[in-house]
Specification:
Oligomer: single chain
Distance between the termini: 46 Å
Structural class: mainly alpha
Number of helices: 5
Shape: elongated
Number of domains: 3
Helix content: 25-40%
Order of helices and strands: HHHHHEEEEE
Length: 175
């Protein structure tokens, strides 16, 4: 896949100036702002930065803080610092579907499923919650059939209760 830049990028005053990618406050910043002030495509650059929510650098003659204020005033999305590529959060929260992010999401899902299987094997009550099979009065209130109940320490789970004890009819393990 070939990356195609907008046509105005070729006319930008900062084109090819990699020394201005990470500027320090002071002399370099002043040089960068002067370059932007004389740039013929500063308006398109600023519009693209606002539309993309760009959170870094000088774009269109404004730094990130100035662009954030302008974005609030004009209804553009606020600048967002996205997580790195190849992370599940970039895939899930920011919708990135590049190969690295998909691989990270697949690995995360695989680990999550394995954790859940291990919890089920260990008998974690939250993996198989307990649900009432019939309505039951609890204090002044009624607890409805199908409602989940918290497992209590010392109270046996439904699959540990002996048949015929009368307790099995009250609860059922949710599927």
């Amino acid at each position: 896949m070939t990356l195609r830049l907008p046509e105005w990028h070729a006319r930008a005053a900062c084109r090819g100036r990699i020394d201005l990618d990470f500027v320090e406050p002071g002399e370099q910043l002043a040089e960068c702002l002067a370059l932007c002030a004389a740039c013929p495509v500063a308006e398109q650059c600023l519009a693209e930065a606002l539309d993309a929510g760009e959170a870094w650098g000088i774009r269109g003659g404004l730094d990130a803080d100035q662009r954030e204020k302008l974005a609030e005033q004009t209804g553009h999305p606020a600048p967002v610092i996205k997580p790195a590529h190849g992370t599940n959060s970039r895939y899930a929260k920011h919708g990135c579907r590049c190969d690295l992010c998909r691989e990270a999401h697949t690995a995360y899902d695989r680990q999550r499923r394995e954790r859940n299987r291990a919890r089920a094997r260990a008998g974690d009550p939250w993996v198989r919650p307990i649900a009432l099979a019939a309505p039951m009065r609890t204090g002044r209130r009624w607890t409805g059939a199908g409602q989940y109940v918290l497992p209590l320490p010392g109270v046996p789970a439904p699959d540990q209760v002996e048949a015929g004890s009368g307790l099995v009819e009250l609860v059922a393990v949710a599927a």
